[in-house]
Amino acid sequence: AAGVIQSPRHLIKEKRETATLKCYPIPRHDTVYWYQQGPGQDPQFLISFYEKMQSDKGSIPDRFSAQQFSDYHSELNMSSLELGDSALYFCASSLVLGGTGELFFGEGSRLTVL
Amino acid sequence: ILNVEQSPQSLHVQEGDSTNFTCSFPSSNFYALHWYRWETAKSPEALFVMTLNGDEKKKGRISATLNTKEGYSYLYIKGSQPEDSATYLCASWMDSSYKLIFGSGTRLLVRP
């Protein structure tokens, strides 16, 4: 069965550069979530989309932006990268199903900022 | 503000110990409660999705209960093993929103 696909799996950037992470949800899923997990830290919710509209926003820095496109894939754009942005970024998708649809997570994109 | 709270924040137990932790959520407008297991550097995986008051679900040595009237859920792990070490996240879906509200997680470390 198709899973959530994230790309790239690994990304190395310099400080102050820009990075873009992509997430391709499971077909027909209507919701996408983004999470950030720093080294040795708990996962932090960044942002979510339902039917291509932002549905919730968490601890996402102003330097970050995200959107969901007409084909339901989502992109997380990170500008003016800082060392502290080095983390594993997870994307998840689900069917809302009135709140009972479980989230399926991708394998994550590891960003290293040098 | 709708908050989902988990306690304890972290927990260290010895292999073979049974343990439990709590997820508290607003009981009004409740619709569903999710539990996820998140191992470091791996993809989180769903454990349970629960909707009915008094519901109890079990998967191997892990089980969960739900009290929607008082707004809490317990996750139990019987005979903890080192491979149970992970962050356990709960999330609540309120029927007035289109989003899951996550708690900050309970980090479990099981010592051999």
Write a short abstract of this structure.
The complex is a heterodimer of chains A (114) and B (112). Chain A contains no helices and eleven strands.
How many distinct helices of chain A? 0
Enumerate the spans of chain B where pLDDT stays under 50 for 5 or more consecutive residues.
Answer: none
Secondary-structure element order of chain A, as H and E? EEEEEEEEEEE
Strand content of chain A: over 45%
The structural class of chain A is mainly beta
Silhouette of chain B: globular
Chain pair with largest interface = A-B, 26 and 27 residues
Query: Uncertain regions of chain A: pLDDT < 50 for 5+ in a row?
Result: none
Amount of beta strand of chain B: over 45%
Could you describe the largest sheet of chain B, including whether it forms a barrel? 6 strands, mixed
Roughly how many Å apart are the termini of chain B?
40 Å
Rounded radius of gyration of chain A (Å): 13 Å
| Helix/sheet category of chain B | mainly beta
Helix amount of chain B, in percent? under 10%
Question: How many DSSP H or I helices of chain B?
Answer: 0
What is the total tally of β strands of chain B? 11
Summed over residues and divided by their number, the pLDDT of chain B gives a mean of 90
**Computed Rg of chain B:** 14 Å
Q: Provide the helix percentage of chain A.
A: under 10%
Tell me how many strands of chain A there are.
Answer: 11
